[in-house]
Design goal:
Layout (H helix, E strand, L loop, with lengths): L1 H16 L8 H13 L20 H17 L5 E6 L4 E6 L2 H9 L10 H4 L6 H5 L3 E4 L11 E9 L6 E10 L4 H19 L5 H15 L6 E4 L4 E3 L12 H12 L5 E5 L5 E8 L9 E4 L10 H17 L9 H16 L3 E5 L5 H11 L14 E4 L7 H11 L6 E7 L8 H4 L4 E4 L10 H12 L4 E2 L1 H9 L5 H15 L4 E2 L19 H16 L4 H8 L3 H10 L4
Parallel strand pairs: 11-13, 11-14, 12-13, 15-16
Antiparallel strand pairs: 1-2, 1-5, 3-4, 4-5, 6-7, 6-10, 8-9, 9-10
């Protein structure tokens, strides 16, 4: 009891002015800090979701029910309660050993529909476990909210064995004074059993999808194969780069539409904008919700001839030369961008360059304009020269309509325009339809091998006598650049100004304001998601609550995304 009182005093001091006490466990202190930063309430009841938001027939609830029922029979008449939550820390169901625990749970508002995320109610065995992604013990006054001081809670995540994703959590609660060690062993075994149940209950669809994918992927010669349903997407290494940048849910919607059509096929655009026909086959013809196999039977466009490759290489080299040192980079994604831009230049059509902020759209547009030839190769009369128009995404509909009329004129000069977006689907269709060629510039996160080249070129431009030391280059490559090339350029210019001599070292670089780049290899879809989240965080000045609102997800979901993508 004395220990609980000391922790309570330490919590009071922390709530008053952030004072940290050595009496508080590090894990508890971290949870308090997160709760305080998120503005969680330390008094009062959790918020209630509407009845419609509770998924009464969810996979995680079906998986947990038989496991928890076995636990309750084992505990007998002892004062215990068990809760199961979804991945957003929303209570789906509760089990109580008797009227005493039922009254206590009601008093603390631990009822189906209550939101127990750390950002809502502070550290608890329901919300903190989803933040820590591991078994969590919150004993009495270790709760951030004083409403829960009378209980000890042990929570552990329910992990899907097939995907490795956390689907929800189990929480075992009893009055303070119980042994957390026994509770940990009991609830961890229950969560493991619930995870196994996910493969045989509602998520048997996932298992069927996995089995179908493996059978198809092993059959015959290697070919691009993917599998998708409402919860997951799988692809072999041949199919992954062909799936484009659409989120998984967009792909699933298109697959469902294809399954309902007589042809059962759809057309995708790969990462380079090339069209690809895809054969769609349901995993279970009697239940389309189980998922579908995507067989990219038509291989990617046939490899170009040596002469065509040489022509593309020469055109890209000429384009880079026209811009001097403004277009450095050796990565495949950047070279592909230059090849597409070169083809657009040779075709003498109107060109739209789009991509995230700071990717070098204006520099490439100026390079295209400098290299443009007034020669007419397609039979249309063009006025001599080309014109660059920046930031079309900020134009009003009236201005865009006026530009459309000018572009449709027979003698209109070639227009090379830029617009800020994260992918083409983020721009209005009427804007995209105005241009003969639409080219996306990749974010720096998709071309990390270019960072050293860009840094060397920018340093030589700003201070020709300055040399980049190897430790400075390594530091730059490890950093994250949500502001892309523009942010990297600003950092280098600031470093050159503060460098004492002609050798720029890592110690001369301004402190990094972002977390280091993820060490694990991300898929194309994950990289695109990481890029979009980072851009939103920059736009809201790091306010995670505002970022979650802009992205349309809960704060708990955003926190999990930040951790999974090494953004925070």
């Amino acid at each position: 009891m004395v220990g609980q009182l000391k922790i309570a005093r330490a919590r009071d001091l922390f709530l008053q002015d952030g004072t940290e006490s050595p009496l508080v466990r590090p894990a508890t202190l971290r949870a308090w800090k997160r709760s305080r930063a998120a503005g969680a309430a330390h008094l009062g009841a959790p918020s209630l979701a509407s009845f419609e938001e509770i998924e009464r027939d969810s996979a995680v609830l079906r998986a947990a029910e038989p496991v928890v029922s076995a636990i309750m029979r084992r505990l007998g008449t002892a004062d215990y309660a068990v809760m199961v939550t979804d991945r957003d820390a929303r209570v789906l169901r509760r089990w109580m050993s008797g009227p005493t625990m039922e009254a206590l749970m009601d008093e603390m508002c631990v009822v189906p529909g209550a939101l127990f995320g750390e950002s809502d109610i502070g550290s608890t065995g329901l919300g903190t476990v989803l933040e820590d992604r591991s078994t969590t013990v919150v004993d009495g006054t270790e709760h951030y909210n004083t409403r829960f001081d009378r209980v000890v809670a042990v929570g552990t995540p329910i992990v899907h064995p097939g995907t490795g994703c956390i689907e929800g959590a189990l929480d075992l609660v009893c009055p303070t004074g119980a042994s957390p060690e026994i509770m940990v062993a009991l609830i961890e075994r229950a969560a493991q059993d619930a995870g196994e149940q996910l493969l045989t209950g509602y998520a048997a669809h996932d298992r069927a999808l996995l089995d179908a994918f493996l059978r198809s992927e092993r059959r015959g010669p290697r070919r691009p194969v993917a599998a998708v349903n409402a919860r997951m997407i799988m692809a072999n290494h041949l199919a992954e780069p062909l799936l484009g940048s659409d989120p998984a849910w967009v792909l699933w919607e298109r697959v469902q539409t294809a399954l309902s059509s007589p042809r059962s096929s759809l057309r995708l655009s790969d990462a380079h904008g090339e069209g690809l026909d895809v054969d769609v086959r349901p995993v279970d013809p009697s239940d389309h919700t189980a998922g579908a196999l995507l067989q990219l039977s038509a291989a990617p466009p046939t490899a170009p001839s040596p002469r065509a490759r040489a022509r593309d290489r020469d055109a890209a080299t000429a384009l880079a030369a026209a811009a001097g040192k403004d277009l450095p980079g050796r990565s495949e994604s950047w070279r592909t961008t230059l090849v597409l831009a070169s083809r657009a230049l040779l075709a003498h059509g109107h060109v739209l360059l789009h991509g995230p902020v700071g990717t070098g759209k204006s520099a490439l547009a100026e390079a295209l304009c400098s290299a443009a030839s007034p020669a007419d190769t397609d039979g249309r009369s063009r006025a001599a020269g080309s014109r660059v128009i920046d930031d079309l995404h900020t134009w009003s509909p009236a201005r865009l309509a006026d530009l459309r009329r000018k572009l449709n004129a027979d003698c209109a000069p070639q227009v090379i325009a830029t617009a800020t977006s994260h992918h083409a689907h983020g721009l209005p269709d009427e804007l995209l339809a105005m241009f003969d060629h639409v080219i996306e510039l990749p974010a720096l996160s998709r071309r990390p091998e270019d960072i050293a080249d860009i840094a060397a070129a920018e340093t030589a431009k700003v201070a020709p006598q300055t040399v980049l030391a190897p430790d400075a280059v390594s530091d730059l490559v490890r950093r994250s650049w949500p502001g892309n090339v523009a942010q990297l350029t600003r950092t280098l210019r600031a470093a050159v100004e503060r460098a004492p001599g002609n050798r720029l070292r890592a110690t001369d670089l301004p402190p990094a304001t972002e977390v280091p780049r993820s060490r694990r290899r991300l898929t194309y879809l994950q990289s695109t998601e990481r890029e979009a989240i980072a851009a939103v965080l920059v736009s809201v000045h790091g306010n995670r609550s505002k970022a979650a609102e802009v992205l349309g997800v809960s704060r708990a979901t955003l926190y999990r995304k930040l951790e999974a993508l090494s953004l925070g």
